[in-house]
Amino acid sequence: MRVRFAPSPTGALHIGGARTALFNWLLARHEGGELVLRIEDTDRERSTPENVEQILDALRWLDLDWDEGPILQTARSQRHGEALQALLEAGRAYHSNATAEDVKAYKAIHGADRGFRGEPQAEGAVRLRVPDDGATVVHDVIRGETRFEHVHLDDPVIARGDGSVLYNFAVAIDDLDAGITHVVRGEDHLSNTPKQVLVLEAVRAVGFGADAPLPEYAHLPLLHGPDGKKLSKRHGAASVQELRDAGYLPEAVRNYLALLGWGAGDDATVLSTQELIDRFTLERVSRNPARFDEVKLKWLNGVYIRSLPTDELTRRIEAFTGREGLERAVRISQEKIHTLADFWPLAGSLFDGPTDDPKARERWLGEEGRAALLDVAAALEQTRGFDEASVEEALGTVIERRGAKPREVYQPLRVAITGGTISPGIFESVALLGREETARRIARALARR
Ligand code: GLU
After folding, report:
1. Is 104 tagged catalytic?
2. Does the C-beta of 7 come closer than 6 Å to ligand 1?
3. Which domain holds residue 295?
4. Is the dihedral of CA 304, 305, 311, 316 positive or negative?
């Protein structure tokens, strides 16, 4: 099996493109086949080196590798020209300057459902001659067979007047030359397929890759947002880069993308990459649109975060935040965060000092709160050690002595040491700060009016 991922580098790698890349990769790895990476850079203005790099970067981040390429489509223009020339010489293609108006006029005479056939001219754009009889049958592994009767198909334009070939022509020749056996791509390309199959059959008839089999096709279902509309920026992060910046783990993203239109068949949602490779088949890909729901991705990411060894999670959070020495804070935050980006808002104040949340102060550092805090300060001064258990015990005595509810003691303390009401566990946070720093922060909060 030889499959390909063929992005057009016109911007960031979007979630749909990443899903296509992943499905091709899983298929190749499952079958022991090869994945060819082809960069479809024929849109000269938008296909910048930066955009190519962005796509490679996103693939690397997702840990998706390829066996051949990247092949640049523009580097193959000579070969495209040769195939075009062979078709012209064999009379399978012809020059035609017919315009959209001409096509309209043709249909007015021959019938609206009649495919356009042009008169060969000496020069101009090039159209492929669609055979008069029969049909082109597209075999789609996911959708079954679709027949396109030739009488209804226009002779498609395959090259411009200047000899440069059009997209559907280049794709077909490139797939043929790369020996692609399975074309797996988004459903938006479904309508291109009969044109590409026609090109493939025509060039094979004139000796190009005559013994290569036609590839099989598989069109992956559309992606929708949670509201059932086509996935777009409105639904949140739309590109792989945005997911990375939002603090998702590549392995969680990979797992989630795999579930967009494919299922293991037993409702399993948390699947390691090896499990995905073992279980992935095109037969289990659905025809129905799949829903990308960032809430679910976040949940799944949380599962992955909790299952990482703490030192590994620390390494990733340190890389993400650009800070060092976070291991203890990561340990006490691991159960509470869903993304790498959740860490700093939760625990950053342990390093950078309390934030200022006037609402929290007002709510928890009134007369009662300050009185509780004074007791806390006294109790924490006298503990024998200063680990989590000693802190818990000291706070327990304050709660008991004051006849207070736990949060009437914990929350003032939390606001004093972090500035707000959100932090890792209170005993863990206090123990991490240590006796002196905790005392300093409490004193500062009490001095503030
Ligand atoms: N270059 C096309 C795209 O990025 C994909 C073409 C194909 O897979 O055949 O949408």
Report:
1. no
2. yes
3. 233-346
4. positive
